[in-house]
Amino acid sequence: QVQLVESGGGLVQTGGSLRLSCAASGRTFSTNFMGWFRQTPGKEREFVAAISWSVGRTYYADSVQGRFTISRDNAKNTVYLRMNNLKPEDTAVYYCAARYGLRYTTLSTNYDYWGQGTQVTVSS
Predict the structure, then answer these.
(1) Which long-range contacts (CB under 8 A, 24 or more apart) does 110-117 make?
(2) Helix, strand or coil for residue 71?
(3) What pairing do the DSSP bridges indicate for beta strands 33-39 and 46-52?
(4) Under DSSP, is residue 18 helix (H, G, I), strand (E, B) or coil?
């Protein structure tokens, strides 16, 4: 089992920044990828970014490329999502997820563990 706890969400104005954190515990050594997803009411969960635990290779959705940065601290079993130049359309609940599989994927159904989510609200 892997437990994930997100933090760092909040209210920010357009153009502002936030950093989300995801602290992982349990059998984290068995997971290969960590991802961030987001969801708004009535919509499916949307891929935002992912990172591999081992080599730190990163992947981004087109909508956040150049504005968001995913990183990890292996010693702390923590993954971060730095969000810059935030826009109102970034408003969502952001979820951290862990994946056992060896291949990168943007599909939420291919992730095995999820955090409880943290709200990010960007005011215009």
Answers:
(1) 111/33, 111/35, 111/37, 112/2, 112/31, 113/1, 113/2, 113/3, 113/4, 113/31, 114/4, 115/4, 115/5, 115/6, 115/22, 116/5, 116/6, 117/6, 117/39, 117/93
(2) strand
(3) antiparallel
(4) strand
Q: What's the pLDDT tens digit per position in 31-42? A: 899 999 999 999
In the structure encoding, which two tokens stand for residue 23, read together? Answer: 């602290």
**SS3 (DSSP) at 25:** strand
DSSP 32-60: -EEEEEEE-TTS--EEEEEEETTT--EEE
Q: pLDDT tens digits for 79-108? A: 999 999 999 999 999 999 999 988 989 999
